[in-house]
Amino acid sequence: MSEDGTTSKPDRIDRFARLEEIALEAGRITMGVVHPTDAPSLKGALAAKEFGLIDPVLIGPEDTIRDIARDEGTDIDSLVIEPAETEADAAEKAVEMVTAGKLDALMKGALHTDTLMRAVLKERAMHTDRRVSHVFAMDVPNYERLLFISDAAINVRPDLGQLRDITCNAIDLAHALGIERPRVALLSCVENVSEEIQSTIYAAAICKMADRGSITGAEIDGPLAMDNAVSPEAARIKNITSPVAGQADVLIVPDLISGNILAKDLDYLAGAEAAGVVMGAAVPIALTSRADTESERRASAALACLAAVAKRRKRKTP
What we know:
- By secondary structure, the protein is of the alpha/beta class.
- It has helices spanning 15-26, 39-51, 62-71, 87-99, 113-122, 160-176, 198-211, 226-230, 232-237, 256-269, 294-316; strands at residues 29-34, 54-60, 80-83, 105-108, 133-139, 147-150, 183-187, 219-224, 250-252, 273-279, 285-286.
- The protein has an 11-stranded mixed beta sheet with strand order 3-2-1-4-11-10-5-6-9-7-8, sandwiched between helices.
- Residues 1-10 have low confidence and may be disordered.
């Protein structure tokens, strides 16, 4: 504890800073910031702009946005503001701009996630051949690499096909960050397949899909309990030998509830920082939380930036 009574974080690698450097090297994107009608969402978008990650387009009630900027002592005169009075109007306007090719990505502002995602899912042009899913990228102090967790925000109780898409979306994000062959752990409460535990059956099926080439670009193993996925010692004690056990980059959770609890445990009890992005739509969507710090909002913008650039490059590949 420091002299002023606050608890300081131990010295460690700032993986979000490295993430932002990689995104900066990839190049700026145009990002629609949907309904930034509170100080955190507006300042987070402006921080990403100042770092050189995005050219923001602010979508929402213009007078309110300008009032917030003035109250915060921020000059936004040079920024584009697309007027939209309500949360729903702003979400629909953002989707229209994406489908018109005017935006590379979206960022959630001060509106409900359901409102934004309802507008995204209602528009067929926003769909791809994948189900949309959310991926957390977490900088956990005592873990030696960035840790991805999916899906802890959108798909409540995924079936096997949806879990396959969730896995593929997470792999795509890891690739966008330069992780050529991410190690993916399908989580359950045990490491053996049990007919009484559906998540173990789904995990085994996903692994077989990878064996047969239906899922590519990653090392995949499961079912794995949490300890076996992230602790080399636990994997050794239980005689689990695989390229994934004890050193996972990606944790695929069986349902939203377990994933949300896991992510918030790491955030509030382990001192982790969390950034998040929605994958599987026509453009990536930085899905920030009201409790996110400016650093976390900027890191979420960096994730969306890298995902958007990777998507652009893939379209150009013959």
